[in-house]
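Request from the bench team (R.T.):
"We need a structural guess for the complex before ordering more zinc ion. Sequence and SMILES attached. Just send the C-alpha cells back."

Command: build protein-zinc ion structure.
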Amino acid sequence: MAKKGNRQKFRFKCADCNNLNYVSRKNIKNTTDKVELKKYCKHCKKSTVHKEVKIERGKTN
Ligand SMILES: [Zn+2]
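Reply to R.T.: structure attached below.
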C-alpha cells in the first residue's frame, strides 16, 4: 500500500557550518513537522544539530 507520492527526499543541513551532509526520505503524510536531528558533521568534526532542507530540483524515480 506504499504510494511513492507520499515520500519526499530531503537533506540534512548542519546548523553550524551549513553543509548538506545527509540525504534522507520521509513520509510527508506521517511526518508533517520539520525534521531536526543531532548528527555527526564531518566538517565540524562533532555532533551538531542538522535541519531538514527540501530538495527542490528534479524528480528522480
Ligand atoms: Zn557542520
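Two things stood out. The first strand starts at residue 7 and ends at 14. Strands lie at 7-14, 20-27, 36-41, 46-54.
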